[in-house]
Protein: Small ribosomal subunit protein uS10m
Amino acid sequence: MNAIRSIWRTAPLVQKTLTPSHAALRFLTSATPAITPIMKPVENVAPTAIELDKLYKKVELEMRGIDPAVLLSYSWFCVAAASHLGIEVTKSWALRKSEKERHTLLRCVHIYKKHRVQYEVRTYFRFVHLQRLTGSTCDTYLEYIERNLPEGCALKVTKIECQNKPDHLTPPSE
Structure:
């Protein structure tokens, strides 16, 4: 009978499908004990100061990658995620030229100095500026976009935090 009571209490679909007689229903509802929460007494706890959330004036995302199409797609993803979270995106742009790094090597190490090979690595950049974020929103957003960072891309985040004026600074007296 205990198994029937536990199924009856936990599964609303079972309640609708079984529909017991009124006598059985009265028995089940009267036999179930009332649920009381278990509370442990808290002793010797000092009140803590409330920690305020950080405020960021501007957050700059710098994305680097070797494939401009992947970088463009990822920047669109970052802007779309920001708009879903209600974050204000002020700028989203790319550098016109890529950064080129060239390496010149000899084909043969010992002789034939005139036979050289040049290798080139291009790095493309995209930037996204976000404004007026709270610390919790910024952490959530950055966690989400970092987890979805594609292969061959790097992300650099620069945060500008708003802080209170220090107490030791006072305006000049006239």
Observations:
- The chain has a mean pLDDT of 82.
- The radius of gyration is 32 Å.
- Residues 24 and 30 are 10 Å apart (CA to CA).
- Residues 2-29 form one domain.
